[in-house]
Amino acid sequence: MRRKLVAGNWKMHGNLVENEQLLNAIVTSLDELRNAQFAVCVPFPYLPSVQSALKPTNIIWGAQNVSQYEKGAYTGEVSASMLNDFGCTFVIVGHSERRSLFGEDNHTVAQKYIAAQRAGLMPILCVGETLEQREAGTTEQIIKEQLAAVINVAGVESVGKAVIAYEPVWAIGTGKTASPQQAQDVHAFIRSGIEAQNINIARELTILYGGSVKANNASELFAMPDIDGGLIGGASLIADDFIAICRALSN
Ligand code: 13P
User: Fold this and answer.
1) What percent of the chain has pLDDT over 90?
2) Is the pLDDT reported for residue 251 higher than 80?
């Protein structure tokens, strides 16, 4: 059975008071949902408090970035083993904001993915095309390159310990969601690419959709056969919206 997952990506939002309110509301409502997994990926400084709040619950947590290096003189970086110290299950790697705003290329993303897995974390590997790339008809080529950059160095077996998130750049934070069919087409493309290398891993692979998932469009996206859940930005900061999205998957 494929893992069904909704993960919130808080990005650089929140403070101690707001986080506590948000988590209290989420915990109360999500504790009864059993047939899917729910997670929040939070800014580094909040990991200890999120860990304390979520440890007794069925909600899991993770970070939004990780260093590709194990340890050393890398001022400002956070290693995978440090994330492990705070009970993280997941770490997002290759988010388009990291790629476009912080210059992370496919090579760096692959190194981060490997560093995460080496420490026992499950990377949520983000891939996705820009609007220009979609309009130029190169979506599949871009996704293929982004995946190959990781699989060629980490091996296809590593995908068995990862989650892939398809996040079209043009849909992130824009309110413009990919249509369920547009998303399904890319998800099926991703799965078939993995299937060509390892059929069992492809079948078990959780592929999330991310990009303006809201309470009112989650159900139709999650109804598609190759969409196994969502990576949620803005709506993960609003308790009622996040809960509704989680319920849409759990139904
Ligand atoms: P939005 O849900 O705000 O569009 O963000 C999606 C995203 O980037 C999740 O990683």
Assistant:
1) 94
2) no
What ranges do the domains of the chain cover? 5-250
The vertex-248 CA angle with 51 and 188, nearest 5°, equals 95
Contact residues of ligand 1, CB 6 A cut-off: 9, 95, 167, 172-173, 210-213, 231-235
Kindly report the protein residue whose alpha carbon is nearest to atom 2 of ligand 1: 233
Burial 35-64 (b: 16+ CB within 10 A, else e): ebbbbbbbbeebbeebeebbeeeebbbbbb
What is the distance between the alpha carbons of residues 67 and 112, in angstroms, rounded to a whole number?
Answer: 6
Residue nearest to atom 1 of ligand 1 (CA): 233
Active site residues: 95, 167
pLDDT of residue 194: 98
The reply to whether the predicted model has a pTM over 0.85 is: yes
Give all strands (DSSP E) within the chain, no chain letters.
5-9, 37-41, 59-63, 90-93, 122-127, 163-166, 207-210, 229-232
- 5-250 adopts what CATH topology? TIM Barrel (3.20.20)
